[in-house]
Amino acid sequence: MTARGRHDVLVVSSYKPLPARLLADELLGRVHVITEPAFAGLHGPRAEVTTVADIDDLSAVCDAALDILAEGPIDAVLTPAEAGIAASGLLRSHYGIQGIGYETANACSNKYVMKRTLAAAGVPVTPFRPVYRLDGVPAAAAELGWPVVVKPTFGGGAFDVVELATPQDFLAFAEGPRAQRLRERRTPLLVESLVEMAAEYHCDAVVHEGEVLFAAVSRYHGPVLRSLGGFVGSYPLPEGHPDRPAAHALLRRVLTAVGLRSGVAHVEMFRTADAILVGELACRPPGGGLVEGLALQYGVDLWQAFLETSLGLAPTLSPHSADHIVVNSMLPARPGRITAITPAEKLAALPDVLQVSLTRRVGDLIDPDLYSTSHTGVVLFAVEREEEVPLRLAELAQLYALDVAPVPGPAEPGGAGHGTGKGNDQ
């Protein structure tokens, strides 16, 4: 067991830094960061920053880490988002640093390896095929059967993920700018059968030394891919919900399949007419205000658990459940320069609002590329019964207003965020 105390760490991440409260945690000593040049200023004044051209260039990250290790030992490697998870696993395996090794990290971030690993373990997933150039999509889709979903094998946030219903849809898509972005990616693509969902869930868990210490199953307000720019969010399923036992059982099968014995897991699942299937998973906390909502519901801080398990420490948990359901809703974003937005105090005046956090203000630029956690803020509110959620979301939608002015030309840095591909930054 690793001793508590101060630990020197290496953070491997591009667009998403560790939360500021973790960087200030008493468990951390020196903090080194490997990131990309565009994001060098995001990681706080105490971080010692090294840049590489591409965080997913495993050789470049290993070379940069070697220079850092030459200055002194590193106790742990932390990666808060999809970008860099595979690289961080390689660093641990390659340089003998404790924590999640390359095989597990790759299975938690490379969507083809992920699906292949789960399917081999008998975990139910949608049919899939890898392709190595965009032009290979029609043949894979014909084999699977249209319609399909196409996504990069590495990435998060539903960025560059597209639904294609027919070969004609593919031809139209292939002529557009999103197709060009996929062609420019130096990563394979994954083609999956499009399955209609009756409900979409996420299961967030803390596991240590093979034991699941905490797990919560939450339902998204609607299919995430079709809700981009809208009221994306979720709420924990109440006790007694019929899908909770099956989701918990699937979670354990997923953790076993990918070999995740200590860490924080975010597993996306969905119910069809016939079964619950596993969509994707990641070995980090979710984004978009979901951590805050689960903390209010269960008293569990997933970021603190992530830090502790990353350091090889037993997480300090004392789960309990509030006597109401905490609903999390991100406020919709639209591309452009914000000219007006509903003030936080007006949103906070809605009944049973627990917390309002606005992340954008008048004058801010929202990037044209929306992804699953694109928002202008997060509202957390309480309901007594699951059936109340749609009505309360409708009240929030009626009150919330966002006006934007179009901005010509390419978006400037620092808009609504920087996406990298669905995976799973939700």
Q: For the residues shown, what is the average pLDDT?
A: 90
The whole-angstrom Rg is 21 Å
Number of helices: 13
**What is the assigned CATH homologous superfamily of the largest domain?**
ATP-grasp fold, B domain
**CATH architectural arrangement of the largest domain:** 2-Layer Sandwich
Share in helix:
25-40%
| Major sheet: arrangement of strands | 13-12-9-10-11-14-18-16
State the name of the first-level CATH class of the largest domain. Answer: Alpha Beta
Q: How is the quaternary structure best described?
A: single chain
Largest sheet: 8 strands, antiparallel
CATH topology of the largest domain: D-amino Acid Aminotransferase, Chain A, domain 1
Question: Structural class, from secondary structure content?
Answer: alpha+beta
**Unreliable parts:** 410-425
Instruction: Work out the strand percent.
Output: 25-35%
Instruction: Return the domain count.
Output: 3
Quantity of strands, as a count: 19
Apparent shape: globular
Q: How far apart are the termini?
A: 31 Å
